[in-house]
Amino acid sequence: MNQPPVFDKPKIELHVHLDGAIKPETILYYGERRGIPLPANTVEKLQEIIGMDKPLSLPKFLAKFDYYMSAIEGDQEAIKPST
């Protein structure tokens, strides 16, 4: 079968990135490094705030990103894939 070239390239799984691919430790590290206040200063407390133990509506799910995106957005080192 002759497929377009795009199908033989690596793909990003966006849903994986949206549901917790950034470790709380990483968020805390970059928040502190960049002087950005976060709603918690321990892994456990931050996880309580940004984690989910039951399904949420889309707006409630997306609202959790407001707690920490400022700590990592625009920082290429913070968002590079781990090896």
From TrEMBL:
Its required cofactor(s), as named, are:
Zn(2+)
Entry keyword Hydrolase: yes
List the Pfam families hit by this protein, alphabetically. Answer: A_deaminase
Regarding protein family, the annotation reads: Belongs to the metallo-dependent hydrolases superfamily. Adenosine and AMP deaminases family.
The record's InterPro entries line, in alphabetical order, gives:
A_deaminase_dom, Ado/ade_deaminase, Metal_Hydrolase
Domain Adenosine deaminase: residue ranges: 10-78
Q: Name one GO molecular function term.
A: metal ion binding
Q: Do you know which SUPFAM superfamilies this protein is assigned to?
A: Metallo-dependent hydrolases (SSF51556)
Q: Which UniProt keywords apply?
A: Hydrolase, Metal-binding, Zinc
What is the protein name stated in its UniProt record?
A: adenosine deaminase
Cite the EC number.
3.5.4.4
Q: Does the keyword S-adenosyl-L-methionine apply?
A: no
